[in-house]
Amino acid sequence: MQDSGSTIRIAYREDGSTDPWEILRRADGGPTITVNTEGAGENLGRREETDEVRLSDEVGGDVNFNFSAQSFDDFIAAAFCNDWNPTTGELVAGGNADKAFEILVSYQEIGKHVLMTGMRVSTLALTIEAGAKITGSIGFAGTGYDQDYDASGDTFNTATTTAVMSAATNGGDVQIDGAVLDGTCIATYGLNLDNQYEAQLCIGRATPGRQVKGMLDVTGNISFAFTADGFNLWSKTITRVPVTTSFEMSDGTTTYLLETAKTYLSGDMPIPSGSDPAVAELDAQHRLDVTAGYSVRITRTPV
Fold it and tell me: Among 12, 20, 141, 247, which residue has the least CB neighbours within 10 Å?
C-alpha cells in the first residue's frame, strides 16, 4: 500500500493538549522535517568523504488552503499573535501572544503518523484575485517532532463544512481611503504577514530549543486598471502619501472585514505592449498607525 496526496490527513490542536484533533482543510503542501548534515571533513589521503555528521533538524513548512469561514481562524489569530475580541470580533496584528500548535501528519494508507510540536505560525498569506478562489498559505516553524507517534488512542473532530469562498461571489469591493475607486477595476489584493521567527539552537538537541518572533513585517500587493483614478493612486508611490485599504468577504453567515490603516505603495507605472490594457501592479507596505492602533486588523461577524 502507498499513500497519495488525497489520503494524507493533517490535523492540529493546541500545543501540549490532549483534546481531539481538528482536521486542517488544505489544498496542498504541509509541514515536514529537514535534517541538516555535512561531511565529516576528515582527510584520510583519499578524495572522498567517508562519513557524515548530523548538525540540526528543522521542523516546519507551508500549507496552502482555499479560504472558508471558521476553518482558519485559529491560525489567523496565531499569525497576528493576538486573540479575537469576544465582544467586537476584532483581531489586531502585532500582538505578543505566543500561540503554538501540535500538527499531526497521518499517512492513513500505511498507518504512520508524524507529530510535530511547538509549531508557531511564522507567515500567513491571503490572496484575493478576480476570477479565482480566495486562497492563502500558512508557514509553520516548530521545535520538535516524533516520527513514530502512536495515534491509536486519539480522536478526530469532523472538519468544518463551510463553503470555499471566491472573489466573485464572496468578495466585496476593495476600498481605498474609505471609497471605491471610480471606474477602476481592482484585479488583485493580497496580504502577507511575516513574524520573522528565528530558531534558537541549543547544545544537546538537534531541533530548535525555541522559536523567537522578531519584528512583524506586513506587506501585500494590489493591481488595478490604470484609469484616471488609478493614475492618482499610482502617484502616491511618488508622493509617499499612505492610504487606507479595506476588503470584505462573506459566505452569507460569517463576514470578515480586512482593514489596513497606513499603507505605502510602490511600483512602476505600467507601459503595456500593443493593445494590452494598462494595469498597475503595486507592492504594499502596511505600517502601524499609532492613532488608529493597528497596521492590519480583521473584524469577524458574528464574533
Answer: 20
H or E stretch including 61?
strand 52-66
Place of cell 484616471: 228
Burial of residue 245 (CB within 10 Å: 0-12, 13-18, 19+) is: buried
Q: What is the pLDDT of residue 48?
A: 87
Q: What is the pLDDT of residues 39-83, one digit of tens each?
A: 998 888 888 888 999 999 999 999 999 999 999 999 999 999 999
For 185-250, give the secondary structure using H, E and C.
CEEEEEEEEECCCEEECCCCCCCCCEEECCCCEEEEEEEEECCHHHHHHHHHHHHCCCEEEEEEEE
What pTM does this model have? 0.95
Query: Three-class SS of residue 46?
Result: coil
DSSP codes of every residue in 136-182: EEEEEE-SEEETT---TT--BPPPP-PPBPBHHHHB---EETTBPPT
Q: What is the CA radius of gyration of the chain?
A: 22
User: Residue 254, Cα to own-chain centre: how many angstroms?
Assistant: 20
pLDDT tens profile 191-211: 999 999 999 999 999 999 999
The residue with cell 475607486 is: 181
* Cα 176-252-180 angle, rounded to 5 deg: 15
* CA distance linking residue 164 with residue 151, whole number of Å: 29
